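User: Please predict structures.

Assistant: First:
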Amino acid sequence: MSFKLMYSGVAMSQLGNSIILKGYMILSSLLNWWEQVAFIFISGSVHMFVHSGTSGRGFPVWLHDIPGIVFCTDNELFKEEMKRFAKKIVGLIQKESLFSWQGGPIIMLQIENEYGNIEESYGQKGKDYVKWAAKMAVGLGAGVPWVMCEQADAPEYIIDACNGYYCDGFKPNSNGKPVLWTKNWDGWA
């Protein structure tokens, strides 16, 4: 098995003549398209869910059958499944030599997406989950920077990014971090 990347949008940032695209990784048959398109770099999203993740509708069905699991919070059952999934995805990316340090197109990874928009509803467990997710992601040894979008309290070693239409006034939560805009959307289709 290998990866096929499906794009959630158009180019989001330009680095000279290079383009960064945000891709959602899907297991698929081997497709070596990156060898033919050397100027495209990918920012990959490593999540267990496909949109609607915070409502539970986008998670794999079998997760709903785990007694006691609570999604997107400091819940040991959820964190165990999240870590297992993230470790598998990072391992598969590395096995396929898709990281930039291996000559591949992936220059950064994202853990969680727009969690800052719902974090407060989980109270302290939400804050603890963000810290755990960041530490877990970095601990996977991917060798590329990790990003959290719309996460004002992202730890120092995680890039917090603006994700949306109005990012002109965005400033990261630390002067040591780059300004990063990860999605330009003008509405839902």
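Second:
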Amino acid sequence: MSDKKMTSSRRHHLKSLMLQIAAKWILEEKKENEAAKKAYMAESCPAPNKSGDQAALMETCKKLAALIDRVDEERYDLHAKVGKADKEIEDLKIKVVDLAGVKKPALKRVRMSADAMLKALLGSKHTVNMDLRANLKQVKKEVKEESVEAGDWRKNIEDKADRKKMFETS
């Protein structure tokens, strides 16, 4: 085409033509599907012969029951195949994820205190204090004061000698 731009009316006209053609194709496809269904039903399930005596009708009922059983078996088999295929697909998806590996996102530095983070996570109802020292009991230290006077050491020795004499005399 030329370098000239298409006008909006021309573009709208072409778009409507394309939609009309697509609508015709969809209608044709629906008609083909209906014809295929009718042909399959005519082939698989012929119209029952309602005329005849009771024995013929019983035979027809038995044939229909056998057809229903066969169709149910096929449906069950197909259902089992689909289930097996779905399970296999899930297993393969898991294997693909395992092979590719899970990429961990780069962690960003958050400038928030632990108290503010817990408050944001738990909401304003829960007040959690990360100051663990505040929860501890206060224990007073007992200071043992032994008043040891630095006195004359000789006097102390003499007192001990007196005690020794007490034990010796008794």
